[in-house]
Amino acid sequence: MNKVATSENNEFGPIIGMMMAIMMLAMFTQLFGCAPAAKLSGHVRDSEGNPVDEAQLNINGLTYTTIADGYYEFTGLTPGTFSLEVVNAEDLGFEPKPSMSVNPTAGDNIKDIILTVPTTGANLVGVVRHYTTLDLMEEVSIILNGQETTTNIYGLYSFHGVEPGDYTLTVSKDGFDTKVIDVTLALGDNTLDIILVPEGLPVAEFEVSDLSITPAEVSVGGTVEISALVTNIGDAAGTHTVNCNITPATFTPLEVVPAAVVIPWSDIINVVVLVVFMKVVIGMVSEAR
Q1: What residues contact 208, with CB distance under 8 A and at least 6 apart?
Q2: Contact 182, 166 (CB under 8 A)
Q3: Confidence grade of residue 59 (pLDDT, cut at 50, 70, 90)
């Protein structure tokens, strides 16, 4: 005898389907997590502010080639520390660009890259941004041991062909705190991006000291303890996030071993039970129809 679907069965079918979808979403979210992704973007320009197209960027194996306006972006990154490199800078007629360490956090992150023409001395390039808005700032005075320049409409400044060595950089603009920075310039390209703080704005400034690594040498699979004293020497109280990055110059692990993904047996059993439950419900809905 053929069964006729009643209005009651048809009414509850969509509700059951929605419940199943919600349960599946909750289960997979619990098992595999949905950590917020990071986006890293910016522009590649020469020292005059002109965009550089066809620049090939690499970030931990991911590649991107800039378009006519020099723009690039990497999306879907896991927040952490990455190595960013312009692999074809010399082919485009610029100085080789040293690999840069970037630390994108969840959400949007901006990193502009400046390429310079070959020189026999040291170059210093960078951009200046507003502390609170991260907007590019023009007409900022930059003085390097008596040599002065100002940022252009892209917030960019540059010094070319100076003798490698130690310098003092003074950064100033009306309405902002003057910043004095000691820099050591090596032969070739050197990059220093600067954040200017409006006058009177409380700012958290951290000083890291007493770095300790125990033991100094560790075998593969061993445990190493890294500690440091982080002190807020600024005038902004409250809770702040401090990103502590260990560069290869400080500590180089012997081998990077990816952590295995372990799924507890209880979660596997839950998935099996959920699948069986879904089959039963689907059978009931089909039979009701």
Answers
A1: 228, 229, 230, 231, 244
A2: yes
A3: very high
Range ranked top by mean pLDDT from 156-165, 199-208, 274-283:
156-165
Strand partners, 182: 168
Q: Which position has the token pair 């440091």? A: 228
- State pTM to two decimals: 0.55
CA atoms within 13 A of residue 253's CA, in its CB half-sphere? 12
SS3 content of the chain, % helix, strand, coil (to 5): 15, 35, 45
Q: Is-cis flag, bond preceding 96, omega within 30?
A: no
Q: How far is CA 114 from CA 97, 152, 186, 210, 228, in A?
A: 9, 13, 16, 34, 33
Amino acid at residue number 207: E
